[in-house]
């Protein structure tokens, strides 16, 4: 009884925090089509200016992969009014930090400044959009930077090529089949004119959302937004191409040899629906139940209790068009990859056959309540979420209401969705093994 009361209290507390944390925002459009979202939070004297562009690696040509990620680097090179090499200096000299990141679906840039530097942040982001300098020296410099990043993150990183191998096997038609970092061969072959054309096509105000979040005066912010972004010409509408994948109806089997590892890894990967769907959210719960943390079903059974694996885990990639759910395990001798896969499959069959317990269901809900609170715990997190919910989901208010979707998911739905997507004939089995060279 005491435990039940404590669980109920925890749930009510989290629910109260989630309810109290409602994110207030205002949104509107500039005449050039740029969408603007403002979120005022005076609790700390900082302000973030961020711009998310609806361009990612899926918008590239198959023979020119890596462009979207390359621009994440290239557009820090300088503008007509910010000399080459001065961008970072201006930011740090004014007490700020900045960064950018790219996915298959979008590219995101941001600066965090003390509140009194909002105008500076807006000016810098407008410069990136209106006056970028894309020239030979910038392209050559960033080409070397990206090559080094690829060596560190993929080529020389133990297990670094799991994702590239999964993507190319899971997708045959969709551009998700290549990695965000792309091919160095493609980047080397590209002309300066191709980089400039990519910028002209995708870096337009009507293909972007601007978010200002933090401690600022709304009236002044709107004046500055109009001053710096209003004059930027509208670009041609970007027509998004639709790519459809045929369902996976029989197990795909593949092997990859990695010279950087000594222990093999078994990978089971399932294609999942768009992150905008209800089923994708149900799969989020299933993923957490199976493999999120040391108390998850797979970790407790295979690593803790049976001591069959050194590690068990999962990576879920929720994306705009499709998603991918990747389970992986490192067998502990004398157990094999096949033994680990058998144990994984047994737990999946249990979900497909029986309802998860009420206790486990409540634990999942509590965990997702906590995730919801943490996702909006900082001004940086709120800014990125506001941009993502607008650009990728088409509903900014999901920042407040998506948790209600998770709350409405039933145990019966969890069972049915597991039956729908997590079957042996619908997946890739990748044997990720040491290369013979790594054994010498």
Automatic annotation (TrEMBL):
Residue stretches making up the Peptidase M16 N-terminal domain: 36-179
InterPro entries per record: Metalloenz_LuxS/M16, Pept_M16_N, Peptidase_M16, Peptidase_M16_C
Domain of life: Bacteria
Any one biological process term the GO annotation gives: proteolysis
Residue intervals of the Peptidase M16 C-terminal domain: 190-367
GO molecular function (one): metal ion binding
Keywords: Hydrolase, Metalloprotease, Protease, Signal, Zinc
Residues of the signal peptide: 1-20
Family: Belongs to the peptidase M16 family.
Identification of the protein by name: Peptidase subfamily M16B-like protein
Organism: Flavobacterium johnsoniae (strain ATCC 17061 / DSM 2064 / JCM 8514 / BCRC 14874 / CCUG 350202 / NBRC 14942 / NCIMB 11054 / UW101)
